[in-house]
Amino acid sequence: MSHHLYVISTFIHIIAACIWLGGMIFLILAFIPGIKNHPDKIDLIASVSLKFRPAGSVVLALLLITGIYQLEIRGVQWTWAYFTGSFFGKVAGLKILVFIGIVLISVFHDYYLGNLAIKAWKLNPEHASTQKLRNISRMMGRIGFLLAVLAAFLGVLMVRGW
Ligand code: HEM
């Protein structure tokens, strides 16, 4: 039974990773460039981002729950020695840190900075402070994306080694 659960958990983990990364890749490659010259660009970005936010939170929670379950199945010990003593432990520890970074960046980006940038953009699109907020938002989004790619790579390293 526990093997069935392990397989289901890994399946959910991989689908959740696909949704998290796929959502961002769709925004970067298709949505944002596709509405580049649209007159309602700001409203479109704001409402599409807000629509994805709950799904994003659910998949991040699923990644954490299934990830911890998979570590338990693999015999994790929540000690410093475990996370520094073997290749698997080190990669797992790094992955957890990267995950914490992803959560912090997305909370900051989605709930604070993004809102601020959209408001400023609507009120005063050409102002230097608006451009600055937009640049910081964009940079945060990019870092979050790169961290998610890194998390997926660390996942593969954990299972398959280097
Ligand atoms: C954005 C965050 C994450 C992404 C994109 C991600 C991605 C992945 C992927 C793609 C795999 C499959 C690797 C393979 O089969 O070769 C994997 C496996 C794994 N991940 Fe994650 N993961 C994330 C977060 C987490 C977290 C937070 C944990 C632990 C708390 C975790 C623990 C694991 C474990 C233990 C495996 C191995 C599963 C197995 O035994 O087959 N992951 N991850």
Entry summary:
The chain is mainly α. 88% of the residues lie in helices and 0% in strands. The longest helix has 37 residues, at 87-123.
Number of strands: 0
Mean pLDDT: 93
Listed once per kind, the bound small molecules are: protoporphyrin IX containing FE
Rg is: 18 Å
Individual helix count = 5
Structural class comes to mainly alpha
Q: How many distinct domains?
A: 1
* Beta-strand proportion: under 5%
Description:
This protein is mostly helical and about 160 residues long. It has one domain. The chain is about 90% helix and about 0% strand. The protein contains 5 helices and no strands. Helix 1 runs antiparallel to helix 5 and helix 4 runs antiparallel to helix 5 (about 130-160). The chain starts with a helix and ends with a helix. The structure holds protoporphyrin IX containing FE. Protoporphyrin IX containing FE binds near residues 17, 158 and 159.
Annotate the secondary structure layout.
Blueprint lengths: L1 H33 L6 H33 L6 H6 L1 H37 L4 H33 L2
Helix pairs in contact: 1-2, 1-5, 2-4, 4-5
List descriptors.
162 residues; mainly alpha; binds protoporphyrin IX containing FE
